[in-house]
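In this section we turn from sequence analysis to structure. A common task in structural bioinformatics is to predict how a protein folds when a small molecule is present, because the ligand can shape the pocket around it. The inputs are simple: the amino acid sequence and a SMILES string for the ligand, here flavin-adenine dinucleotide. Study the lines below before reading on.
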Amino acid sequence: LDFSLTAEQLALKKRVLAFAANRIASLDDYRLRMKACGEEGLLGLPVPPEYGGSGLSTQSCVVAMEAFGYGCPDQGLAFSVNAQLFTCALPIATYGSEEQRQRWLPGLLDGSLVGGHCVTEPNAGSDFLAMTTRAEPQGDTWVLSGHKSYVTNGPVADVLLVFAATGEGEGLKKELSAFAVDTQLSGVRVGPALRTMGLRSCPISEVQFDHVVLPNDALIGKRGLGGAIFQHEMDRERVCLFAAHLGGMHRLLDKTIEHSKQRMQFGKTLGQFQAVAHRVADDYVNLEAGRLLLLQAAWALDQGQRATLPAAVAKLFVSESYVKSTLHNILNHGGAGYRESEGIEVGLRDSVGSLIYSGTSDIQRNIIARWLGFKA
Ligand SMILES: Cc1cc2nc3c(=O)[nH]c(=O)nc-3n(C[C@H](O)[C@H](O)[C@H](O)COP(=O)(O)OP(=O)(O)OC[C@H]3O[C@@H](n4cnc5c(N)ncnc54)[C@H](O)[C@@H]3O)c2cc1C
């Protein structure tokens, strides 16, 4: 086993770190930041070069996203970027027709278009197969109706990958299909941005589809491929988005280490108290272990293996470590950790959502248990 990064990966890491810390920090508008990410190539990292991307391996995407999360204090932006790339652009690049790729990918990759995906509904969250959104074939068109919740990038999206039932079966037998929906179409109603606990720079909303007439070529791949497309998205998002979170966790841990070496209490630095030093040591262990789990899951994806198990393990471990670590950072900073102005408490607010999206921690444990032979 060789754990070293290649020369290209080291250069990528350095470039993305500098971009996130300098260019992104100098922009305060969401669209400008997304555009800058497009110019930097972040919105097309794994997309094949023939469609304008960099064709990077998933392992290199993990390296780039960790660097982005480290350099960019705005985790909401990292969340938006990953949603656009892994739940909209990459599925279109992987499963879409040549026309669909030509229509959507140039804008999604250069950041002039914003994308997201719609699975969750008010009564179908973890149990997403309970979705009631339907698309019915009608002549040369499909008619889409339903209500989707928590759509990341929803309020500003130009295109949404919408999952809908297209057959009669229920539960595991339900036929799901995915459609690239232009949000300008008549009947698409996007709700206002939700007020959320964290990731506040990332716009999230409800989206309703009221008898939206879709051209036949809005269907991605073929009818019934929705389940496979969703699994493809989730395996990659659980690895790459959580690499960005690992980077965020690392940045805050470095801040804590610096603080613990400087602040004196009882005539000693905080780091000389075992209670503080051990919290930092535990967080460091989790950081290192989390990175190995992400890289291992990425490696499995790059080998073309089914990576649902390692991706669930990595997602579960990184998200739970992230929340623990951001709480430790607050404790290690004392009162300063609780003050908004210090930029520490935002870490905890940003981290909590990671226990919920891309499948909750309970759902990751269910996936792992199923792979170990336990029947739900
Ligand atoms: C910041 C954010 C962004 C999101 N972005 C998107 C997006 O872009 N597109 C999208 O489609 N969705 C998105 N979601 C929705 C997200 O995927 C769902 O919130 C998530 O799947 C959980 O569904 P729910 O909220 O309905 O909770 P529920 O499914 O109602 O779960 C509530 C609780 O019950 C537990 N539970 C449920 N079923 C089981 C079970 N079988 N075993 C054990 N425990 C269980 C859950 O773990 C949880 O603790 C986002 C959510 C958040 C918070």
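The two ends are 36 Å apart (CA to CA). As an exercise, try to locate the residues that line the flavin-adenine dinucleotide site and compare them with your own expectations.
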